[in-house]
Amino acid sequence: MSFIKRDDAYKCVKDVLGSEFSSGTKYIALTALLDAVKFRWLSLPNDFKEEIKQYINIFIDNYIENNGEQSHISEANLILVEIAKYDFPERWPSFLSDLLQMSHKSQNHCKNVFSILSTLADEVEECFENSLTSVRSQEMKEELEKYIDSIINLIQETFETNNTSLIQSSLATLGRLVTYLNPEVLLQSSLLNELLTKYLLNSDLCVAVIG
């Protein structure tokens, strides 16, 4: 575990995650990469950055398929969001389309995509309140708006499942998006009617709808 103390520990992440190291060591490796993205991303080599984008997507996909530890998936989700804050959409135009594609692989994949979208929406909203990053957050907000129809369609698809946890996740994501997206999007879709007729009478889901 001596690599953890190294200044370039983030470079060892792929080797650590692909080995027989303990769960705790793998989590620390992911944390090292998260810190590198937060504080060094702009200075990292472009080829390394592209490699990390691809690797983290694959890592999340594989971990979900193989019922990997949720703490590892959650940390990888944060890495994706932090990268998106720097590179989306200009240097990572496929970020959202890749997520939406992944969401259709399984219900667990879909639930995780909603988790990522919720975190991203929170980050955009927080940035929008900071004048130093208002231009950057506006760019991300405008790009998110381009995908809102696809996201709403995905939310509505979850209504056809019997997976209460998945539906709660989708509704929680919707709650975060409507705080800064044009309300006409909701009024022009069938989503609002479904919310009123299906879920406001369901005690398990009502909090997610109005929260």
Automatic annotation (TrEMBL):
InterPro entries: ARM-like, ARM-type_fold, Exportin-1/Importin-b-like, XPO1/5. This is Exportin, putative. One of its GO terms (molecular function) is nuclear export signal receptor activity. It comes from Trichomonas vaginalis (strain ATCC PRA-98 / G3). One of its GO terms (biological process) is protein export from nucleus. It holds the Pfam family Xpo1. Residues 75-208 form the Exportin-1/Importin-beta-like domain. It comes from the Eukaryota.
